[in-house]
Design brief:
- With 371 residues, the chain is an alpha/beta fold.
- It has two domains: 143 residues, no CATH class; 160 residues, no CATH class.
- Helix content is 31%, strand content 18%.
- Strands 1, 2, 3, 4 and 5 form a five-stranded mixed β-sheet that branches. Strands 6, 7, 8, 9 and 10 form a five-stranded mixed β-sheet that branches.
- Strand 8 and strand 9 form a beta hairpin.
- Helix 3 crosses helix 5, helix 8 crosses helix 11 and helix 10 runs parallel beside helix 11.
- The chain binds iron/sulfur cluster.
- The site of iron/sulfur cluster has 15 residues, from strand 7 and strand 8.
Length: 371
Amino acid sequence: MFTPEPVAKADFFVNCPKFKAHPWTTVTFSMKNYIGIQDDRHRLIDHDHRLNEKIADLQYIVQPQFIAIDAITAGEGRMLTPVPFPLNLVIMGDNQLAFDAVCCHLIGVDPMTVDHLRLAHERGFGPVDLASIRIEGDVTFEEARARAKGFKVGLIRVEKYFEGTHITAYAGPPPEGEKTDYCWGGCPGAIEEAIEILRLFDAQTDTKMPRVHVVFGAYEGPIDAAPGEKVIFIGDCAAWEGKLHDQVVQLRSVYKDRATKDPHVAKHDDIFAKMASVLAKLRRHKDDPFIRLEGCPVSVAEQVLFLVFFSGAKNPFLDPVESVAFNKAYLQWRSVTTLRRLQGIPYQRAGAADRGDARPTVEAPSPTDAE
Ligand code: SF4
């Protein structure tokens, strides 16, 4: 596990998350916020069907001495486009697992049903039972719970999520199907986030969308695509055999085993290069009955692009307000990383902590798929 050295070596660590539901991990409180302690190159390794395990593993790097969550206006349903839910609470704590467990109990979720909390509890990071946690404040726990009544979390499988829309989703198991039958941490959740972003930018997104079929994992079963309806296989692990419009299709998984992903040489994909390659691919295959988008995961940004391409919905990347902020962040990040290279601090030094090198290795945040 690689993190910037100041994170790994912090002698007093403060974690300040936002109180939100999450479509991949049910909730995102203090522990899930740890996905942000890695840079993009390392954050995306194992951001797949093992996401909950990864979050639990990250806990070994550092534990915060103080946590304060902003639950003044909480985020319901989703992570990137949450529905505002007024809770009017700031919750503070000093044990990360106990803290997240209290937040779960507040919204009526059993913490043991949230996999990264369950794993952390089994590994001894703290209690989840309210009877073992001291809670005090200027509102009682019951009053706080009353405020959270009706708060919706976002865990929903992609097939169900798209029911009643022009998109039909099919999901088979990810690699290591013996562990889980669904990839909660990767491509299926990313498309849910992507369409929600588009809906915010263009209220006509669903009507503009032609009938398309999206397939995840090793799906076995029919794909109900009429002639002219596009089928999109999303993610390296997508695999399928069958007939599409009288054409025999045999699509094999190109998923690379995680043992082949060496964090020492992990690279960050430039967001503009990624966008250009997705668009080039979509244009190249626009008349083919099916197309595969590769990646593990295929990011929210890439999925936004392909949905825009097929629907003609407004492109958020071209929105005048958003594009100025986006390009500014991109240029800042590029300038900082270039400057650091010129100063002789190579890009690949995020793991210096492991080698006992004392030079700080913090990177500027990149404007890619914020969570
Ligand atoms: S390719 Fe996508 S669906 Fe498959 S394991 Fe990776 S993130 Fe999950």
